[in-house]
Amino acid sequence: MEESRAPEDDPAKARQRRKELGLSCMLNTEVGAVLAVIRRPSSEASAQHQYVSGLQDEAVDSSILHSLKSLRALIFNPQQEWRMIDPSVYLSPFLDVVQSDDVPAAATGVALSALIKVLKMGIFDEKTPGARDAINSVVTGIVNCRLGKTDPGSEEAVLMRILQVLSSTMRHRASILLSDQAVCTLVNTCFQVVQQSSSRGSLLQRNARYTMHELIQIIFSRLPEIDLKEGENSESDTDDVYSLLDSGYGVRCTVDIFHFLCSLMNVVEVVETDGSTSQSADEDVQIFALVLINSAVELSGDSIGRHPKLLRMIQDDLFHHLVHYGTSSSQLVLAMICSTVLSVYHFLRRFIRLQLEAFFSYVLFRAALQGPSSQIQEVATEGIINFCRQPAFIFETYVNYDCNFMCPNVFEEIGKLLCRHAFPTSSSLSSLQLQAFEGLVILIHNIADNINMEDPSTFKPRAVEVTEYRAFWEEKPEEEDENWVDSVRLRKAQKRKIMIARNHYNLDDKKGLDYLKISNLVSGEAPDAKAYASFFRFTPGLEKVSIGDYLGDPDEFHIMVLKEFTDTFEFSGMVLDTALRTYLETFRLPGESQKIHRIIEAFADRYYDQQSSETFASKDAVLVLSYSIIMLNTDQHNPQVKKKMTEEEFIRNNRAINGGNDLPREYLSELFHSISTNEIKINKQTMSTQNEMSPSRWVELMNRSRSANPFFRCNFDGRLGRDMFATIAGPSVATLCACFEQAEEDELLHECAEGLFSIGRIAQYGLEDTLDELVAGFCKFTMLLNPYASSEETLFTFSNDLKSRMATLAVFTIANSFGFSIRGGWRNIVDCLLKLRRLKLLPQTVVEPDADPVSPSDASSTNFRSESGMNFHNQDPRFSNGHQSSGMIGRFSHFLALDGAEDSLTLGASEFEQNLKIIKQCRIGSIFTRSRHHPDAGLVHLGRSLIFAAAGKGQKFSTPIEEEETVGFCWDLINTITISNIHRFSAFWPSFHDNLIAVAQFPFFSPIPFTEKAMCCLLKLCLKLVSTRQADMLPEELIFRSITLMWKLEKEILEICSEAIFKMISRILVEFPENIQTQLGWKSLLHLLVVTGRNPETYDQGVETLITILSNTDHLSRINYMCCIDCAFGFIGLKSCPVDKKIKILDLLIETMNLLIQWHKTGFSDPAVNNYSTTSSSSMEENSKALGASNLALNMFVKLGEFLKNTSLARREEVRNHAIQGLGIIFPLAENLDFMSTSCMKCFNLVVCAMVDDLHEKVLVYSRRENVEVELRSWEESLKLSMRVLTNVFLHFLKLIWENPGFRTFWLGVLRRMDTCMKADLGSYGMTSLKELVPELLRQMILKMKEDDILLPREGDDLSEITYIQIQWIAPSLKDELFPDL
């Protein structure tokens, strides 16, 4: 017989049928299992359950069996898909079994297993009809599960299955249809199992807790997806109706569950000790609760902030518990509390500003500093460090707390706490010290990595000053302020001023309040009462007695301050005694009753206005009861009161005070017991930070949080980063330096170095003192500056001590990277450098010949070679960005990899090479060649350190050679930095010059070799400056001022270093004369040319240099003209100077008379005259006074005439006669200088007459000597020549001068000189030939005067008569010839 085959079904439908069939089979199996257990014979049941009597089938509720059988009948004949069938159809039979009191434990367990399978198989989902009722019925059934007929072993198994059902229910897709009440019931049921499991096996306990954790995770992970329902936005505690909307459970259940979790923190356990019982927090439950709370926060995230009730729960309940138990818990609980707060911080810090402050102030700081054990301190410290690991925490903390007047300096306290714990107190660091050290380094790295601002070499910190009055107690939300950084910095400045005002106030209250006005913290014109009130209310550490006296004063303004002060309190929700405690904590009640009355009255008004209850009928009732409480407090706690007030007496004393009625007895009784057991302490002298969070303080905090600005989330700003580090800079540097000193392990050394370099990265932004302190610390660790160690000991330490080499590299790396911010630290750096030089550790391979300071390639050369032979390398291109720390720490990694030095007393070649390699990595040369990036102040400090070191300050030299080499090396460095900064020479050199003056005042200053090396260096700098024409003449003036100072300190150096000085001077004068623009420059150069030119080896070249200058009129100017004359006189006066050279110089100077005439005619129109007028020489000023004229050319002419006059006294006759003839040449030309008659006569007297007098004196001197007739006759001829010049000049200017009122005197002076020469007595050498010359010269002059009608007899003019008389005395033979009529 052939089988018939069904047509091929659709594959999808086939799979669906197989699935439906599988579900039917599963349900059939579970139903059968339940029925089988229920029908199990009683004997078998007795055998298996010895504590439970057997059950008969007829004893079981028939409805349970009927429902199971009905389900079995339906299983394989469903009318539709299982997914579309009401789940109650197949869930109800099993739930009936679970809830029945008559079924055995085994049947309950099987029914629970069936429910687990149904829920896991996903037979229905949230879209299945009846799913809502079904899923809620599961919760109801589990809650009502009966365990009465089970033995202990079976009960534990049933409880395990209950936990599985609860977990499966919440994981089911239809769980979103659970009502808020069902979810709360489900969690409560699970916790009941947790409680029961504590007395059972550990497996059940672990499973119960795991399930509880899982339920919390499922519930709170859905919170971000829940939309806020109508009515849930209210924070009212009276809205307890649970949502029955189609969307299922919502925020209400999460609020209740979270409240339940917080309440678990209060679970206590009873401990029996020595027959007595005590209660303490159940640590195990607390940890369990914290784990669940942490999970809830982590999964809910910032969505909590959208639900006010839940947020308020975290702000109030959670944090109150965390702060309360955090102060007295074990290390494990404290660690969990820290983790919980950190989680809340991540998601909700915007809403917990004050709570977070309280947690740090009352928990972490207290536990870390005053913890009962080192373990507690470590946990608290680790909690703080975990916060510091968060990128934005420290910055946001500084902005929100440290820059807020009403908050403590949380960041500063964190930094100082870590420094305090990390500071080493012994050779080995404890675990707490290592932990704090790690946290401090993390904090510093965090700031350093984010502080990047503008170029630090050009960064100029702008200090914030409180320039105008601004309400310091008011906070403008930072989100609304575009310039929030400036506002925050201003608030921080105000806070600093307030702390200063506090110190003044505690010493003298009037001075403190005056300082508030001076600092613009209160208005000086119209005082603001709220400003004073805020100062009294929120400034910590104020002297309480003065506050009380001020507030109680009857002055009108003081009363206004009292009201504003009282209005700063939030008393809503506080009991009267709590509010009064809070109020009286802030000041001390004055002794006068009237003052007390005003203060308590203000309190009563504020308290009454803020109470929502109807306990008090009026403000007067509050006032009377407040007085009564203060009196009760004194009565109960004053030891001098022997008879204490009873409760009944207190109640009786306060009868009928509430508007004629009594206050509730219970209320007064509570007040009495509160005061009697807990004193209101009003005797403290100053306001201090409380170590405990009292209930009243927490209520006040919550009241403040309602009006306080939210936690401001912001990005890092470099300006604030610099400011915030400045608050902990000192302790940080000291701590890390101490750790570096104590560290023995390479890893710890490495971490210290990294931390210190991060400090440098921060300090480069204007924290110069911090950077100097850092440099000083590293220099100490180099061991190079140990004054008690010999050179051999220092060298051995350097070669064998890793720490010393690391510190050396650190010093110079800091100088390279952050040199622009170093100030006083340069002294330490220079001292270390000089020590390395003495130890011969500076590389010798870089010694090369001197470089030309004006070489064309100077600006771009890679190296700078010094006077001492040291070659200073510029910055390596790989390290061209000096502001980045990349590569710095790599050098230390290299050090850590080095093998330890051999333990020997002498250095081997390998050690020496290793030392040189280390020094090479220091890139010492680039420190100075790259000094162009330093600001003026930094450069001045560097120069000061080098100059003082060169002068021997702080140095000890073993030999003169060592001293000379050190001084030369220092001046080489000065030369290097000066050339690198030649573009701003005028900015820093005045300070250098002042330092040069200062070193001369040192007690043991030795001018040699200091001035010797200084002159060489300064002349090099001078050559560099004048090699190009400068727009500003000040640099030239400054350098020559220093050059003059140096040679005046020790004039011997001009002879010691004459060749070197002459070489530089000659080059400047020959190659760059047109670039010398100041008279001081010319005067200094030409003076040095003369002095160094005296050396026989340099004399010829010196004379040629002068002749070169004089030969080229382009080189002569009004600035250098007189200096050239002085120089010429210096060379002419030398005996070794050849006659032809002297005459050449004289001729050149005589020819300059034409140049003077040209300058005079042009009116000195070029810019040089301006400079000349400001730098005129003393001789010019003297000549101007003598001549009574301000004609510049005339002054120069006088200078030239004096030069020739002085030269007329030269020993060589040819030279002096040439000079006399020169005077005869230049004087007639002087009429082109616009001579006035008076100037002409004065010039004649000053030069010509003086020359005649000097030569006459010479003749007389030689006439008294023996065997000098030849010399005498030579001088006589020169005198005769000068007389002729006098006559010629007189005759030339006769018409100009004769009408001058002073001509009579002038003419008598001429006649007197003629008379003197006529009567010259040559003694044994016979007659003088002057007797023949003088009459001839007189004849010429008188005849000319008569010819010009000057000697004609006139009425009132006796010139002719006086002349006649004088001729009778001088040359009587001429009387008749010249005056025939007389």
Word description of this protein:
One of its GO terms (cellular component) is cytosol. This is SEC7 domain-containing protein. By secondary structure, the chain is an all-alpha fold. The chain is 64% helix and 1% strand. Among the domains are: 10-178, no CATH class; 245-271 and 278-388, Alpha Horseshoe (Leucine-rich Repeat Variant), CATH 1.25.10; 391-451 and 716-766, no CATH class; 1256-1280 and 1293-1382, no CATH class. It is built from 61 helices and four strands. The strands form two sheets. The chain has a two-stranded antiparallel ribbon. Strands 3-4 form a two-stranded antiparallel sheet. Strand 1 (268-273) and strand 2 form a beta hairpin. Helix 9 (202-221) runs parallel beside helix 11 (283-300), helix 47 (1079-1093) packs antiparallel against helix 48 and helix 53 runs parallel beside helix 55. It starts with 10 loop residues before the first helix and ends with a helix.
